[in-house]
Write a structure and sequence with these properties.
This protein is an alpha+beta fold and about 200 residues long. It starts with about 45 loop residues before the first helix and ends in a 31-residue tail after the last strand. Helix content is about 15%, strand content about 15%. It contains 3 helices and 6 strands; from the N terminus they run αβαβαββββ. The protein is globular and about 60 Å long. A hairpin with an 8-residue loop joins β4 and β5.
Length: about 200
């Protein structure tokens, strides 16, 4: 049993789990000492959670599959972007924060000013990141704050959103039944580029 975050967090919001991230499976997550204040309701607990998730998993292609439980990826200490997103969602929800799964594509290299020229992790297939509902400290309207725990960054213009949901199960790109004999296997490879 590995602890992602340690310490305690004070919250009063009850946030339910979801099929891919049930709260019963995120019991391994204990939380960083972060306290909310009246001036800044979130007090940036997402930053500590994202750093802890990045410290708990190493990105490795094909090490897990679409139905790998988040606890198994954590036990392995490695996973794909879906595992990073599910673990991050579990951490955020266990803090009482509303979190959602975002599925889409990445530009192979980040186009944002000051971004590294190195390829983004998870860029050659569909990619997953998360959103956390964020009340603004200045009193302006709340909004979804995007977080990419796989690449340890706040998504910019290089992240192309296709779907959002509670977890991967809500946003699968293909769903259906195949009838017939033999084995079937789907391979996906994606390359993206910015249009001028």
């Amino acid at each position: 049993k590995r602890s992602v975050l340690s310490g305690s967090f004070s919250h009063s919001v009850k946030v339910p789990g979801s099929p891919e991230v049930p709260m019963s499976t995120v019991g391994f997550i204990t939380l960083t000492t972060v306290s909310r204040s009246r001036r800044d309701p979130l007090a940036m607990p997402w930053a500590a959670a994202m750093a802890a998730v990045r410290g708990s998993l190493r990105y490795e292609k094909k090490v897990t599959g679409a139905r790998t439980p988040v606890g198994e990826a954590l036990r392995l200490g490695r996973g794909v972007c879906q595992d990073f997103a599910h673990l991050m969602i579990g951490a955020l929800r266990s803090m009482g924060l509303a979190a959602r799964y975002v599925s889409g594509y990445l530009l192979t290299t980040a186009p944002d000013p000051g971004a590294s020229a190195a390829p983004m992790l998870g860029a050659d297939a569909s990619h997953a990141w998360v959103g956390v509902w964020c009340p603004m400290a200045d009193g302006s309207a709340a909004r979804w704050l995007k977080l990419d725990p796989t690449n340890n960054l706040l998504p910019g213009t290089g992240h192309v959103r296709l779907a959002v949901g509670r977890d991967y199960g809500d946003v699968t790109p293909l769903r259906g039944v195949i009838r017939g004999g033999g084995e079937h296997r789907l391979e996906v490879q994606v390359q993206t580029r910015q249009l001028s």
